[in-house]
Amino acid sequence: MDAERVIPAHVAIILDGNGRWAKKRHLPRSLGHREGCKVVEQTVYDAARLGIKYLTVYGFSTENWKRSEEEVGALMQLFRYYMKRLLGIAKENNVKVKVIGDRSRFDKDIIEGLDALENETENNTRLIFTIAVNYGGRDEIRRAMVKMAEEVQEGTLKPEDITEASVQAHLDTKDLPDPDLLIRTGGELRISNYLLWQIAYAELYVTDVLWPDFSMEELNRAIDAYNKRDRRFGGVKEEQEA
Ligand code: IPE
Ligand code: IPE
Ligand code: MG
């Protein structure tokens, strides 16, 4: 199978199940998140090894601020630590890091760390690793609409020039192709406000595996499942047409 196996260019992941992983072990949720961060790091290596060009993970949603102060605080501390580690890893492995979402709500040092991740890796080419933080698909579309409305007001954009392509060009993901494969761990059958515009034709793969238990083996399973899909994009396959 491996010889003909197609590697999806863009894999997006909703990494879910850190809390349940910790609960099963009678550990605080923060330890689930810590384990989850290690797995994100491992997945960056695995994706690069497999030849995936774009990997986009959901790190923190616009709705996750609803969690306890303790949990949000623990997540912020993990961001601080892993941002620094990731910078080293990205530089060593030719990985370009991109951040999507509205980072303005974070503390100044986190914003600076995220900016540095992008700036210091911008010329890397092996893998484009995108992290969604304070990200919501609806908020991203809303922010794009604000920008477009301003351009219309300034006279630099005409309403008749608002095409799907120009909307896409105002999204945080403007430089990324749409995801081919969307993986969700933790078994929930929902999108949770992730990449709403971009996943119009993504193939969905949900596994009950909790994120801290995710591995190269599970990533390979998702890619094998992707290879069995028949992507029609609203059309009809040639052999069915005859
Ligand atoms: C996903 O794990 C990580 C984040 C949302 C930050 P959860 O924390 O949602 O884990 P569960 O779903 O409660 O198990
Ligand atoms: C989605 O997981 C958000 C992230 C993975 C960052 P959630 O755990 O927040 O989603 P719901 O609450 O199950 O929809
Ligand atoms: Mg969850």
Topology:
Blueprint: E1 10-14, H1 18-24, H2 29-50, E2 54-61, H3 69-92, E3 95-100, H4 108-121, E4 127-135, H5 137-154, H6 164-168, E5 181-184, E6 203-206, H7 216-227, H8 238-241
Parallel strand pairs: 1-2, 1-5, 2-4, 3-4, 5-6
Helix pairs in contact: 1-2, 2-3, 3-4
The structure holds 3-methylbut-3-enyl trihydrogen diphosphate (2 copies) and magnesium ion.
Give the proportion of residues in helices. Answer: 40-55%
The average pLDDT is 97
Report low-confidence residues grouped into runs of 5 or more: none
CATH structural class: Alpha Beta
Tally the helices: 8
Largest sheet: number of strands, sense, barrel closure: 6 strands, parallel
SSE string, helices as H and strands as E: EHHEHEHEHHEEHH
Classify the fold: give the CATH topology: Undecaprenyl pyrophosphate synthetase
Structure, described:
The chain is an alpha/beta fold. The protein has a single domain (10-136, 179-228), classed as Undecaprenyl pyrophosphate synthetase. It contains eight helices and six strands; from the N terminus they run E-H-H-E-H-E-H-E-H-H-E-E-H-H. It has a six-stranded parallel β-sheet with strand order 3-4-2-1-5-6, sandwiched between helices. Strand 3 (95-100), helix 4 (108-121) and strand 4 (127-135) form a beta-alpha-beta unit. Helix 1 (18-24) packs across helix 2 and helix 3 runs parallel beside helix 4. It is globular, with a radius of gyration of 19 Å. The mean pLDDT is 97. The site of one 3-methylbut-3-enyl trihydrogen diphosphate has 10 residues, from helix 1. The site of one 3-methylbut-3-enyl trihydrogen diphosphate (IPE) has 11 residues, from strand 2.
